[in-house]
Structure formats: structure tokens, C-alpha cells
Design a protein that fits this description.
459 residues, mainly alpha, 19 helices
């Protein structure tokens, strides 16, 4: 069973430092690559929809294997799985840097996502195992701050590397950090958390394949084959859920959603939040570089404002959520984000840059109000036995939400622009696609306010 013990302040801070550093890397990679997407698309003569799979492919690989790796971590040890994820993440990041074509770049990004599933399924659970309930909000706030810090410096450093070296240098830079994270976690996290058991291979395969079919199908929902793929994936997910609800030894305790209102609605709020917001940087990168003619470096500097605010405020909001009901903080956060998304649906070719930056800063406040308190609500709503499952569920909501966010933007692009390379002739259609995407996300985020408020009065 998992160890039940009280940790010293030094032990807790050491675990938090190692976790925070490794948490920095993935958002750094994601935000760096997002800024470089227009350049990657030009280098490989790819259209916007295909290039977006550089992001979606990574998230798909992570989402497909989150639940299986979460169960494996419970069986063999969370630290062991976490360290392995950091190490193989570095290997596949290097492979991305040497990719000779878009196909191989997407393949290695997918495998990079698979390795990161080890990190996503264990990181939050390790922190929750070390910190007592009254201190978790602060710990998660600091960890989330480093996630946002990675997103903050990513556009800036990624823009500089793309502008003066190459987009490939982003991956080599990230590989150094990933190897360092693997070493830090292995050296400084001494304890192991595991409870034994066995992995249901059939259920794991069904979950992974169904997620792949549904996400891939939704990305191409305008085509007949996309619709068929989405329906097959959806049916597979329904079968998986029914199966896990009845089996005595599930790979994921589905009953947590039906028996724990706070857990269920907090995860739903997280899913909606990421679904409505993950494509912001993707859309603004195309707007700033194609519609407004900025280079990758300047675009990155503008985009850095939002995650920078999030990184600064998240520790304070996390600590505040130990005293104030997370539903109140998170719901205000969703409201602020909805206002920002609504404003971006009115972007034009002459929108002042300072208003774009102010809106990003405003939305950064909203993200800080939502993320740390919502994470605290999820992890505090379950007993230690379910820390791994709760962390896996929250990571799955984040990744599937992020994938659907990019997929929604891809669908809007495909409907309005088609599957063609972005050129000056289609800039009017591109701007229309960006505005329609933001409008859709604003409506979705407004629904998320209800989900956040519905979690129960105490949380």
C-alpha cells in the first residue's frame, strides 16, 4: 500500500522543487512549438491543419496512455514511472529535432506525448502524497506557477531560437532540460508509492484506441471518414466506461464521478476550461504572424504576457484556495476568461497591439484564479488511496480538452479555408476563421462557469 507518513519541511520542499522543474518543461515545449508552427508549416510546405498536428499528436499520445500508465504507477511505483517518463521524453525530443519530414516530426511528437503520459499521471499524485490537505493548495499553486512559467518563457525563447537559429533548436534546448529533470527526480525524490495489483491489458488497449479514434475523427469531422472514426471512438469509450463501472478491479475507478460531486464537476470544469482556451496561442500565433505580419520573435514576446501573469499569481491563488472555497475562485476565473475570449472574437486587421496584450494579461488573471484552486479541489476531494486516479483524471481532462480545443480550431479552419497552405490570398478567410473560433470558445467557456459553480457549496 502507499506509505502513510509525515514529511519534514525540507523533504516536502525538495519534492516540490524536483516536481516543479520537471513540470516546467512540457509547457515550455508546447508554447515554443506553437510560436514556431507557421515556420514549420512553411519549411515542410504544409497547411495549417496538418501543422497543428505537431501539437495535437503530442497530446493524443499523452491522453491515450494516461490511464494505463497511471495504473502502472500504482502497481510498480509513481517515482519509477515519473523518472522513466522524464528520460524517454528527452530521447524523443532529440528525435523531433532531427525529423526529416513532417511525418516523422508528428511521429516523434506522438511518442514524446506517450513518454510524458508517465509524468502527467504521477506528478500531482506525488505532491498530494507528500503535502497534507491544509498545505496542498499552496504546493499545487507553486507547481502550477512553474507550469505557467514554462508557458511564459516558451514563446519568448522559442521565438528567438526560431528567428535566429531554427525551429529544430527548440527541441535540442528542451532535451537538455528533460535529461536534467530526470536526474533531479531520481536523485532528490527518495520515497516510492505503490500498492501492487495487475494491469488489465484489454481495458487499457480499448481506452487508448477509443481515444485515438475519437480525437482523430473529431479533427476531420468535416469528412465522411472522420465522422466514422469519431463514432467508433465514442462507442469504444462508452463500452470502456460501462466495463470499468462493473469490473471489481478497474484500471480507473469510474465510480468516483458518480459518487463524488466535487470530483466530477471539478473535472468537468477543467475539461471545459482547457477545451475553450488551449487554442488561444495557436490562433494568436497565426493572427500575429500572418494577419499582422510580425515575426516569430515579436509574436512570442506578445504571447508571453498571459502565462507570465499566471505564473506570478498562481502560488497566491493556490494558497488562497486553502482558505476560500475553490468553486468561488475558479468560477470568477472562468468568467474573466469568457470575457477575454469574447473580445478576441472581434479582432480585426487594425486591432491595437496594446489591447491584445491587455486582454492576455486580463485572461492570465482568470487562469490563475481557476487552475490552482480547481486542482486543489480535485485532489482534496478524494482519499490518499485515489490520489493516482484523481491526478490521472485531471490530466486526462486537461489533455483531451486541449486536443479538442485545437481540433475545434482545425475544423473551423477546414470549413472556412479548406485544406490548403496559408497564403496572402486567403488572409481574409484566415481572420474569419480565427474570429469564429474565439466566438465558439467564449460560448463554451460560459457554460464552464455553471460547471464550476455546480461542484457543491463547500468546494
Amino acid at each position: 500500500m502507499f506509505q502513510q507518513k509525515i514529511y519534514t519541511r525540507v523533504q516536502k520542499r525538495t519534492v516540490l522543487a524536483a516536481s516543479a522543474f520537471s513540470s516546467f518543461i512540457t509547457p515550455f515545449m508546447g508554447s515554443s512549438v506553437t510560436v514556431a508552427l507557421p515556420t514549420i508549416a512553411r519549411d515542410f510546405n504544409a497547411n495549417a491543419t496538418s501543422a497543428a498536428w505537431t501539437i495535437t499528436g503530442f497530446m493524443l499520445g499523452a491522453a491515450m496512455f494516461l490511464i494505463p500508465f497511471g495504473k502502472i504507477a500504482d502497481i510498480y511505483g509513481r517515482k519509477r514511472v515519473y523518472v522513466a517518463g522524464c528520460f524517454f521524453s528527452a530521447i524523443f525530443v532529440i528525435a523531433c529535432g532531427f525529423a526529416p519530414s513532417l511525418f516523422f516530426l508528428l511521429l516523434f511528437r506522438f511518442l514524446h506525448g506517450v513518454s510524458c503520459a508517465c509524468i502527467f499521471s504521477t506528478g500531482g499524485a506525488i505532491l498530494a502524497s507528500v503535502y497534507p490537505p491544509q498545505e496542498r493548495g499552496k504546493a499545487f499553486g507553486i507547481n502550477v506557477a512553474f507550469i505557467y512559467l514554462g508557458g511564459s518563457v516558451g514563446p519568448f525563447i522559442g521565438g528567438i531560437l526560431t528567428q535566429y537559429l531554427s525551429w529544430r533548436s527548440i527541441f535540442f534546448f528542451a532535451a537538455i532540460m528533460a535529461f536534467s529533470a530526470s536526474f533531479m527526480v531520481h536523485k532528490f525524490i527518495k520515497d516510492e508509492w505503490k500498492q501492487g495489483g495487475r494491469l488489465d491489458i484489454k481495458a487499457s488497449a480499448l481506452c487508448a484506441i477509443s481515444l485515438a479514434f475519437s480525437i482523430y475523427g473529431f479533427s476531420f469531422i468535416t469528412d465522411k471518414n472522420g465522422i466514422i472514426s469519431f463514432v467508433i471512438g465514442l462507442i469504444g469509450l462508452i463500452i470502456f466506461i460501462l466495463w470499468q463501472a462493473k469490473t471489481p478491479i478497474p484500471i480507473f475507478p469510474i465510480k468516483l464521478f458518480s459518487k463524488n460531486l466535487t470530483f466530477a464537476m471539478s473535472n468537468l470544469a477543467a475539461f471545459i476550461n482547457y477545451c475553450a482556451t488551449a487554442a488561444i496561442a495557436f490562433l494568436l500565433a497565426y493572427y500575429l504572424q500572418y494577419i499582422r505580419g510580425l515575426n516569430a520573435n515579436i509574436s512570442g514576446i506578445i504571447l508571453v504576457s498571459q502565462p507570465l501573469v499566471m505564473a506570478f499569481l498562481s502560488p497566491f491563488m493556490g494558497k488562497l484556495s486553502d482558505k476560500v472555497a475553490p468553486r468561488i475562485l475558479a468560477s470568477w476565473g472562468m468568467f474573466i476568461i469568457t470575457i477575454g475570449l469574447g473580445y478576441y472574437s472581434f479582432l480585426s486587421e487594425t486591432t491595437p497591439f496594446y489591447l491584445i496584450i491587455i486582454t492576455l494579461i486580463f485572461m492570465g488573471l482568470g487562469f490563475a484564479l481557476f487552475s490552482s484552486p480547481n486542482t486543489n479541489a480535485v485532489m482534496t476531494s478524494v482519499s490518499q488511496r485515489y490520489f493516482g486516479a484523481a491526478n490521472t483524471a485531471l490530466s486526462l481532462m486537461r489533455l483531451t480538452g486541449q486536443m479538442l480545443s485545437i481540433a475545434i480550431a482545425q475544423v473551423v479552419f477546414a470549413i472556412i479555408i479548406g485544406h490548403i497552405q496559408i497564403t496572402y490570398e486567403v488572409h481574409a478567410s484566415l481572420l474569419k476563421s480565427i474570429k469564429y473560433s474565439f466566438a465558439s470558445f467564449a460560448v463554451l467557456c460560459a457554460f464552464g462557469i455553471w460547471a464550476s459553480l455546480a461542484r457543491g457549496k463547500r468546494r
